[in-house]
Amino acid sequence: MANLNQDGQREQWGSKIGFILAAAGSAVGLGNLWKFPYMAGKNGGGAFVLVYFIMLFLVGFTLMLAEITLGRKTQLNAIGAYRKISKKWSWVGALGVLAGFIILSYYSVVGGWVINYIVKSFSGALKIADADVLGGMFGNLISGTTEPIIYHAIFMLITMIIVIGGIGGGIEKSSKILMPGLFIMIVIIALRAMTLPGAVEGIKYLLVPNFSAINIGVILDALGQVFFSLSLGMGCMITYGSYLSKDTNIPESATVIPLIDTGVALLAGLIVLPAVFAFGYEPSAGPGLLFITLPAVFAQMPLGTLFSILFFFLVLFAALSSSISLLEVCVSYVVDEWKIKRKVAVSGIGFAMFLIGILASLSFGRLSNITIIGGRNIFDSLDFVASNILLPLGGLLLCIVVGWIWGTDKAIKEASNDGKIEFKLAPFWAILVKWVGPVAISIVFIRSLLG
Ligand code: PFF
Ligand code: NA
């Protein structure tokens, strides 16, 4: 009954490229386009990017492979998958579902901003080249009460409707067309941004590390960003992997997906930061960077309005192909384990997320005086708890379960399709899962607890 098709078999991706696109669709999202540039801006630019790359190589690829393999082996949702390996560890999956729940509640608020910017592009309201005026306009939107909540509701509803459509129907089909479209657009816009007068400073800021800017806060942010951006640490790739057929090449997928994701994040950085410098803005300005600098770039482009409409549509699409995966993790669990109808699960969970999202949205306006963790408002606190604590913790536990409980020999057997395909780096991967991943994550955690 749970996630089955008419023949009583588990639903599967329609094709190999379908899975890669859907998984890349989950990975590529607001994390790349909106969050990466502002996290880099906040954490010293090149210093952040350098640490990001180190974390990507230490844990990103490793855990991507571990999650997909665990999912395909067990053919179950995040909690079911852990339980199948060992009854004692099913709570790790529950932790992931909780992280997904928290993330989507505020992710949807940002998705709402994107929809609002599509509307603004159509009306011509964004045709402004002055970054300060654009900053004011963005501030007005997010500090409002009803307007951002209505757009947040619209984003959440679209997500829910797609997820009700199920795996092959909703999620896979749309990714095949829109992902390549996004990539082409973002390259064109990056070329424009990088050739603005004064843009070189921005490129340098992003790519040349200033080592003195590296501290434990930067390292924790970079670690959290790797998990967030690759959709790791909460069982999302376990869930997507569970719909894979036994002949997929997992080592290849686990390499390609992080590469695509990182490429898009860097391109987004190469749009936003050069524009920040070209327009004399502050790199550390925070969550508004994308929304403030992009329109300023479009205003300097021929056919700017058209670009603006198309681009924000593609951002929306990227956000949706991620938000559906966040919702799917929660829904897949509830449908599999509680045996309730997909529609009911989606409605209930979606509505609960919507309510929490309202608080996140209001934390830029009416509730801005409420601070929870280390002076962060509600929105930033939710993001901090999910990205910087729950996801890396989920990743640490994943390493333990796959590396030590299930065992790397069995995992490698599954990942290589019983030795039918090549997995050259298998011995190296085993060391990374068993030792390097857990040690690296623990060190960052302990160091940041000590302050
Ligand atoms: N990876 C997505 C992004 O970069 O926007 C966000 C995300 C999706 C995080 C799915 C976690 C997840 F399970
Ligand atoms: Na991402």
UniProtKB/TrEMBL annotation:
SUPFAM superfamilies: SNF-like
GO MF annotation: an example: symporter activity
Key word Lyase present: no
Keywords from the UniProt entry: Membrane, Symport, Transmembrane, Transmembrane helix, Transport
Bilayer disposition of the protein: Multi-pass membrane protein
CDD domains: SLC6sbd_Tyt1-Like
Subcellular location: Membrane
Residues annotated as signal peptide: none
A GO CC term assigned to this protein in UniProt: membrane
InterPro entries reported for this sequence: Na/ntran_symport (IPR000175), SNS_sf (IPR037272), YocR/YhdH-like (IPR047218)
Transmembrane segments: 17-34, 46-70, 91-115, 149-170, 177-194, 214-244, 256-281, 301-324, 344-364, 384-407, 428-450
Family under the similarity heading: Belongs to the sodium:neurotransmitter symporter (SNF) (TC 2.A.22) family.
Protein name: Transporter
